[in-house]
Amino acid sequence: MPSQFFGLYIAGSGLRASNAALNTTANNISNAQTVGYSRQTVTQEASNALRTFTTYGCAGAGVDTIAIERVRDQFYNVKYWDNNCKYGEYEVKEYYCKTIEDYFEDDGKTGFKTVFNNMSAALQSIVSNSSSESTKAQFISSAKALTDYFNNMYGNLQELQKDVNLEIKQNVDQINSIAEKIATLNKQINVIELSGAKANELRDQREKLVDELSEIVDVDITEYDITDSNDPDRKTGGTRYVVQIAGGQPLVDANDYNTLTYTARATGEQVNQTDVDGLYDIHWSNGNEFNLTNAAMEGKLKGLVELRDGNNGANFEGTVSKILKETVDGATITKMQVSVTADYLKDMKTCTLSDTGGHINVANTIYSYSSWEYDEATATYTFTMKDDPETGVPDASRVGREVKTSESIKYQGIPYYMDQMNTWIRGFSEKVNDIFKAGVNAYEDPGCILFTGNKATDGQYEASDLDAATGNGYYELTAGNFAINDDLIKDAGLLGTRSYLSGDEVQGVEECGQIKEMIELLTSKEQYKFRNGSASQMLEMILSDVALNASNAITFSTTYKGLQTSIDNQRTSISGVDEDEEAVSLVKYQNSYTLASKMIQTLTEIYDRLILETGV
Q1: Which residues of 29-43 are buried (b: 16+ CB within 10 A; e: fewer)?
Q2: Residues 46/64, Cβ–Cβ less than 8 Å
Q3: Residue 419: which H helix or E strand, with range?
Q4: Tens-place pLDDT, residues 351-409
Q5: Contacts of 537 (CB under 8 A, 6+ apart)
Q6: Which of 527, 479, 360, 376 is nearest to 103 (CA)?
Q7: Residue 234: burial class (beta carbons within 10 Å; 0-12, 13-18, 19+)
Q8: Interior CA angle at 161 toward 303 and 165, to 5°?
Q9: Which of 13, 46, 406, 416 is the least buried, fewest Cβ under 10 Å from its Cβ?
Q10: Cβ(239)–Cβ(215) under 8 Å?
């Protein structure tokens, strides 16, 4: 049997429920512009009815406020995160591809086409006045402008590679920071929710962090209910929140989290010949490998890695054919012969393998090498191995096993454009030098080479250094060390412009057979061909690559940005605060509060009459 004051209790429950709803509405309105905030609602249900044992059975006991919960749809969260990592990848590619395109664009003053045309015009001047030292000096000067162009491009691309490398480091730091914050929030959320409450604001903060993380790298989120170990069917209220990144690699598990660390490669330790020193290798802090080339990885980090390391799949790979042991000054030297089949590895003009030392993967074991030599007759590289502190040197058991220096990245990143320039320089220089070496200079002596490279130490490469029979040939030339023979800069008369007629007989001083051959070389595909084009079309070939990559990046970036906006709008339509809707709720809950208050007032008057006037 309910007491005489049962109605007051019922009205009080309605007052409390309306007050909770008003407070929640006030919170929603206050956070209408807060990024990442999810609209909250009050969940109410009728209190358990009171059995009265009368003819009417049970009496309603008012309302209970069960919880204040977020309105959030996990389906749209997952869609947003999946799209956001794709957008992050192509956004960063768009920026850097456009930068590379700007570098290669001919400005009409110092661009490749302008410099190349000036060199062609200087050759024509020699034809008009072949005995003049000034016309030869003018041509040599125009050729130096060509080497300067490649030197500058090489410097620009290396600086760009440094920038990308630094951005990789910054993104790794950001991943670590987000991981720590998520783990901290996991602990705080469980402390609150194990007591029966809902940590709505903390959950919003956590999902905002996941939004940021999803742009850097792909994420996979799983949340498990924590159950009673003695009663698996009973939920404790706590949860286990797990974050995996980069194709399923664990980052956060409840209160625990892993961090990434970056280690700069030692000076001279390069994967590609043109890589700058100090590129970062990424590992987990616990020593486990973090696979940067994981095919499942997406996000800004993937885009940066492909830009920094992408060589269009032209990585070194082969098979161990022999392990050799040599004794030098009492010390045992291990050498490893590797047979290759890829065409780009059989031609020193297209080879990108670093000759300053580095790491090499033999059957998933990492070894170190200091140098290598190539035997064109057998298509075999012989690596001089270093005794690695962890893995030592390869032994005979490695014969027949696969070898590679790095994972293949089939994207045209900065190393690819460097390689394209090097390939053109080596092939063009060889043809030009052969022409002038076959000529006669102003002193009736054989001509000397025009193009060479500056050594890392003092001096320049001689003609014998660029001979494949005695070394690695034109592999030694890169866009960074490309140079004009110093002897020609000092004395233009050493340029072999005249041709031999027969035997030792040479053309007259006003003849210039080698120059005419040079002119033909500049435009004839038969004389020199670069990617099915003539020497003068080098810029068109490279620009077509970078323009296509930039166009693709812009297209995908725009597409995924549009999808991001669309998905976010859908997500916001569910979880966002609609001020008009909250205004309606404000009026609705205000009326409920007013009516509950009126009910209490009415009951108070009834109790006054009942107690004071009837003497109950």
Answers
A1: eebeeeeebbbbebe
A2: yes
A3: helix 414-437
A4: 989 888 888 999 889 999 988 999 888 999 999 999 888 889 999 999 999 999 888 88
A5: 530
A6: 479
A7: exposed
A8: 65
A9: 46
A10: no
